[in-house]
TrEMBL record:
GO MF annotations in UniProt: transmembrane transporter activity
Keyword annotations of the record: Cell membrane, Membrane, Transmembrane, Transmembrane helix
Ranges of residues in domain ABC3 transporter permease C-terminal: 270-389, 719-837
UniProt cross-references to PANTHER family, sorted A to Z: ABC TRANSPORTER PERMEASE YTRF (PTHR30572:SF4), MEMBRANE COMPONENT OF TRANSPORTER-RELATED (PTHR30572)
Membrane topology, from the record: Multi-pass membrane protein
The protein, known as: ABC3 transporter permease C-terminal domain-containing protein
Length: 846
């Protein structure tokens, strides 16, 4: 009986049903889209990795792993092991595999970039041991011949027979003799691949011709992978490992899952949760308005014998039905949203290697319960309040909403607000932020109706003078029901507050990072240091660094080389530099000891890293390099500023013999006093053309380039948060629509005494705009405060200095204006519909 009554009630009020369903749909669609896109990436990347190792039964590699980052290279192994492996019983074929850095230079002299690693290696002749297939041309047969992937060929408009340069990282003139695909794909994700013959790869890619990267093994049919790996292992030295092909593939897949995909999934889920929270508040307020409007209806049900429990169950059944239908629709809409998110990332130069869309049962098992539960919990309090209506209310013309504001609510709100403000101002760290944020938000929401009643009058006093009768009507409606006004503005308040916190943090981080980079970099010019594509890593040849050092007017030069190694058994990102000139190129704010002339066994460490490890000057630590070599280093200096250089510095001479690739991530140049920066920059750019034309910037240009990468990410964040604001505006529109329906008789009387349709429309539009402005302004103030607390909590020692509190005034002003315009648009349709109501029917409405 209750189910039939609930269905009839929902069907009789289709407009209310649509409004409630839309908020649930948008929130669940974001969650569904996030999960679908993450699953698609996981399936696509995992599929590519599995394809790459499908025919390899055993992988022979260096036993030392200094990092578990996807795509990272281990040290090389003795090339003589290839013949030893081939002699093991059960081995059908064994091919040496060399892989390192390689980037094709286009016909315009600029390096062709992508969104993944740029690799080079040797062409593997056994098709079972490589995923690459020739699409056109032939395999390389000479050291100066190469095969390139089809994606790179398309990007550079290249074809077999073209003469180009490949950076490995030094420039190598080559002839393209073939174009290959990675299985059915043009390339492996967004990366690029250049294949020499084995001799060419030894000369140009592998620094030590006596080594290879790995050995790919194909087993005799019927041979078990684990058994064959064990046989091969017995023929290998202790520093070399034989791993079954399936285990190697699984290891690579797990590295991606635990690294990039985990971060990406969390990133999208955070915004999905934000959208659901805003949707929950919008749903809660709409149900509150509905419960208030159904006061007399519920009272009649009680008078006819319905119990409180039955009334409560009916309201919850309606909420559950809405939750089920809207969540199912949101689940389906998530597919379209996932495709949209994929295009969004592609538009900023971050093309995701996603093939099709993957929809898993786990997505439905997550989205549907979450959407239903969020809807049910959002409707619970209004349903409880509605079930308490007394039967005698049916005999009175009870208003839709009680105007009286409970004193207990005000007292509790003020107490929470005071506690949150106090904790935010006095407290510190993440604990202070964790307490202050919910306390302030809860306090503001509880005192909002009283605040609207107290401050709304003075703030809107001029509206009747400016807009006449429509302005007076809008002001009166706003102040007459402060709880409804506050409820309608809640979703907007939350949305604007969240956006403001993100905007403040981004501006503060940008300003702090830029200021710290300016302090740290003492040179006037920087080569490289950020990828032209914004995402893919890269570097340039040390030859370029050495040649720029010979330019007249250059006082000091150092290349920065990534030297990831194990420090006391833990993976750490170190930087290898020319420490003899370090003090002239960087201002590291040395606190103790020295950071120059580190030599082959000295290490400089940041104060924060030394504190974490319990090190002091003279402490020693064991470093394990990628090739498996171990060496003890002594801490010779401590410094505070870590921007650009990180936490661990060693000399290039200590790293040189252990690195498989000579690649400078960036080069910093300091000029002699009085030398014109522009003159030297032009000469550096001329030389850089021989090395793929890496970007050459002055210090301010380098700071701006780093900030641009952050701005791109912030732009994506704004787009994702826009959905929360869209949900908030939908809540305002829904509330205004319900309010207009409630005031049908009132609007009819206004029309009867001479009010024009335009005046009615204007009044309702102004009401919607005022609600949006109140929500946006309050959210702005709350967001600024919480942003300030967050900066204090998480800024701390950031690159050697606390983060500054920066307010992006222009962006926030635009945000408020957009909120106001959004409120105006949200109210346009309900206002137009209310103005079209026939006068006589409106007057006769109850």
């Amino acid at each position: 009986m209750l189910i039939r009554l609930s269905l009839a009630n929902l069907w009789a009020r289709k407009r209310r049903l649509v409004g409630l369903s839309l908020a649930v749909l948008l929130g669940t669609a974001f969650l569904s889209g996030a999960l679908v896109l993450a699953d698609t990436l996981s399936s696509s990347i995992g599929g590519l990795i599995r394809d790459s190792g499908a025919g390899t039964d055993v992988v022979v590699r260096n036993a030392t792993a200094v990092t578990d980052r996807p795509g990272s290279q281990r040290g090389g192994i003795d090339a003589a092991l290839v013949d030893r492996v081939r002699a093991v019983p059960g081995v059908a074929a064994a091919e040496p595999v060399i892989q390192g850095y390689g980037q094709v230079v286009g016909k315009d002299g600029k390096a062709l970039t992508g969104n993944g690693p740029r690799t080079a290696g040797n062409w593997v002749p056994d098709p079972a041991l490589t995923p690459y297939r020739l699409a056109t041309g032939r395999a390389p047969a000479k050291p100066d011949e190469v095969v390139i992937d089809r994606a790179t060929a398309k990007q550079g408009h290249l074809a077999p027979g073209d003469r180009v340069t490949v950076l490995t990282p030094g420039p190598v003139p080559v002839t393209i003799v073939g174009v290959a695909t990675f299985g059915d794909e043009d390339a492996f994700g967004g990366g690029s691949y250049t294949a020499f013959d084995l001799e060419g790869a030894r000369q140009h890619v592998q620094r030590d011709p006596g080594k290879v990267g790995t050995i790919a093994v194909r087993a005799v049919a019927g041979t078990d992978q684990k058994e064959l790996a064990a046989r091969i292992q017995r023929a290998l030295p202790a520093d070399t490992q034989a791993l079954p092909g399936k285990a190697a593939t699984g290891e690579a897949v797990d590295a991606v899952e635990d690294g990039f995909l985990k971060v990406f999934r969390t990133f999208l889920t955070v915004f999905a949760v934000i959208a659901l929270v805003v949707a929950a508040f919008s749903i809660n307020h709409t149900f509150s308005v509905v419960a208030a409007q159904r006061t007399r209806e519920v009272a009649l049900m009680r008078a006819l014998g319905a119990s409180r429990g039955q009334v409560l169950r009916q309201a919850l059944i309606e909420a559950l039905l809405i939750g089920v239908v809207a969540s199912a629709a949101g689940l389906a809409a998530g597919l379209g949203l996932a495709a949209g998110l994929r295009e969004l990332f592609a538009s900023i130069g971050f093309t995701l290697p996603a093939r099709g869309l993957v929809f898993k049962a786990a997505t439905a098992l997550t989205v549907l319960p979450v959407g239903i539960l969020v809807t049910a919990f959002a409707a619970l309090v209004p349903a409880l309040r509605g079930s308490r209506v007394a039967p005698v209310t049916a005999l009175r013309g009870a208003g839709a909403e009680q105007v009286r504001l409970p004193r207990r609510r005000l007292v509790a709100g003020l107490a929470l607000l005071a506690a949150g403000l106090g904790m935010g101002i006095v407290g510190g760290g993440m604990v202070g932020l964790a307490v202050a944020a919910p306390a302030v938000l809860a306090g503001v929401l509880l005192v909002a109706p009283a605040g609207i009643r107290a401050a709304g009058g003075p703030l809107t006093a001029l509206l009747p003078r400016l807009r006449g009768a429509p302005g007076a009507l809008a002001r009166g409606n706003l102040l007459r029901s402060p709880r409804r006004t506050a409820g309608a503005a809640t979703a907007m308040l939350l949305g604007i507050a969240i956006v403001t916190v993100f905007a403040v943090f981004a501006a503060s981080f940008k300003e702090g990072s830029g200021a710290e980079t300016r302090k740290v970099v003492a040179g006037q010019l920087v080569i490289g240091g950020s990828s032209p594509a914004g995402w893919a890593g890269g570097g340039h040849s040390p030859e370029l660094t050495r040649r720029t050092a010979q330019i007249p007017g250059v006082e000091a030069v150092s290349g920065l080389r990534n030297a990831t190694s194990l420090v006391d058994g833990q993976s750490r990102q170190m930087l290898a530099v020319d420490s003899a000139r370090l003090d002239r190129l960087f201002n590291l704010d040395v606190t103790r000891g020295r950071v120059t002339a580190l030599g082959p066994a000295g290490m400089a460490v940041s104060e924060s890293a030394a504190k974490d490890r319990g090190w002091v000057l003279g402490s020693t630590t064991e470093v394990t390099f990628p090739d498996g070599a171990r060496q003890r280093f002594t801490v010779t200096g401590l410094y505070d500023r870590t921007a650009i250089v990180g936490d661990y510095l060693i000399d290039r001479t200590a790293w040189e013999s252990h690195a498989d690739a000579a690649l400078d991530a960036a080069t910093v140049l300091r000029l002699a006093p009085g030398v014109a920066t522009g003159t030297v920059k032009a000469e550096v750019q001329r030389i850089a053309k021989d090395y793929g034309a890496p970007t050459v910037r002055d210090k301010e240009g380098f700071v701006a380039a780093r900030a641009k990468m952050l701005q791109t990410l912030v732009a994506v964040v704004y787009v994702l948060l826009a959905l929360a604001l869209l949900i908030a505006l939908g809540g305002i529109a829904n509330t205004l629509s319900l309010a207009a329906h409630e005031r049908t008789r009132e609007l009819g009387l206004l029309r009867a005494i001479g009010a024009a349709r335009a005046q009615v429309r204007s009044a309702l539009r102004w009401e919607s705009t005022l609600v949006a402005v109140i929500g946006a302004a309050t959210g702005l103030v709350v967001g600024l405060f919480l942003g300030w607390v967050a900066i204090r909590a998480i800024g701390g020692p950031n690159a050697g200095a606390a983060l500054p509190f920066a307010v992006p005034s222009t962006q926030l002003a635009v945000l408020v204006v957009v909120g106001a315009l959004g409120g105006l648009l949200a109210g346009a349709r309900p206002a137009a519909r209310a103005a079209r109501l026939p006068v006589l029917r409106s007057i006769s409405a109850e």
